[in-house]
Amino acid sequence: MDATTPGPLAPDLLEREDVRRALAEHDFAAAFALIKKYGGLSQNRIASACHLTPGKVSTIISGQQQVTSFEVICRIADGLRIPGHLLRLAPRSWETRTVQETLAAEPEGERPDTDEVPWRPEATVDLAAHLTRSDLVMDRRAATRALAGAAITGAALLDPLEGWLQPTASITRPRRRGRLGVREVEELESTARAFRAWDHKYGGGLRRKAVLGQLSEVAAHLDEYQVPKVERRLYQVMAQLAGTVATMAWDTGLQRRVQSYYLLALRASHAGGDMVFGANVLAGMARQMLYREQPQDALELVRLAQDGARSVAGPRVRAMLHTREAWAYAAMGRTAAFHRATTQATEALTDAKSAEEPYWIAYFDEAELAGTTGGRLLELARQNPKKHAEAAAGEIRHALARRGPEAGRSHALDRIGLAQCHFLLGDLTGAVAETHRAVDAASGTRSNRVRTQLGELYPYTVGNSAARPVREARDRIRDLLST
Length: 483
Prior knowledge:
Layout: H1 17-24, H2 28-39, H3 43-50, H4 54-62, H5 70-80, H6 93-105, H7 121-136, H8 140-147, H9 155-158, H10 182-202, H11 208-222, H12 228-251, H13 255-271, H14 275-291, H15 295-309, H16 315-332, H17 335-349, H18 366-383, H19 385-402, H20 409-424, H21 428-442, H22 448-462, H23 468-482
Helix pairs in contact: 1-2, 2-4, 3-4, 3-5, 7-11, 7-13, 10-12, 11-12, 12-13, 12-14, 13-14, 14-15, 14-16, 15-16, 16-17, 16-18, 17-18, 18-19, 18-20, 19-20, 20-21, 20-22, 21-22, 21-23, 22-23
């Protein structure tokens, strides 16, 4: 099979949580069995694709032999066209080619390379039109190809963002006159706010196309001449809608699209003169880099946000940026710098009560700070449980006490984190109780991030499988992730 041959797996198979979990754990007995059951591939077909003998595949499925050879794992990835990150490998050479071929093969409406889009308002409108048009007509095959797109990192990501710090250029092309008034803009602002609130509470991509449709409509209005006040507010609406689409794309696993919409949101913030929301967008991009295990890139993005919004950001925004900074330090293992940045976040938040700030940062309160800090301490606890696990549990409990199930995605993430803390502390009774609460909370959200975190809780239950209560908790996790 060469780099241009499509893989034999059905488009939806690699989205199954049980398949992804088996691949992440290099449990090829389970992975091959699931591929046979849900992918319709025979042992002979699997063997042929992976350059293995049918007998070898049979012994792997039966559990008589494990795959430990790196070379064989790579053959499985390439033969079945399994993206590298699902097997904890570097991106395979065919992934880059596949994404490039996908972009070239997309119909008119596919986005131009954002690196080549100048920081001019009309170019931002064109980018929004291209992105929304291609996404609104995306079929299942195109969506599957989009899942293979990896986020850009390093200089290729960071260098083009320097334009955010430059003054906004004036529009140069003639446009037909629009008729949008302040009242209509206020209605669009209200809609953007409602979409953002819904996503923050529930997560998932269920309403993603509705937001895309609204974003497309805003782009159409900006393609016309509007009075300056209306135009500026329309760009700000575009930025907020694009930011919401980015988080929804994240919850559906479309990492390259996440980045594209974050870039659009940043450019729209720039065109609308909203440096504070732009800083928020950069913080979102930093979070994406942290999930992609690129803490240095994340730190650079946070510093860019702090440089651009230093004179205009309110206390909640400053506190949020400090927590992103602390997250990057924790990922680097820089414990002292993590504590310093966390203290700065706490100090900034003490001034928030008397300050007027945008509605979209209102979520960042003491509960959010505690939950975020607890999550970072949990990361440190995985390396040193004795030193950090109890502190992590304390912060997460503080968050849970201040925000209940109505917090949706955040509440579920807190529950999952607290269950991990109990496992790390060796408290199996508490761990089982918190795992059941975590599954209950996770069942109420469609967020892919929640399901991913629940998948990371699963191995803790495997390591303690002798106890019946732990087995029951593990079964509940598996049942939920399999739906």
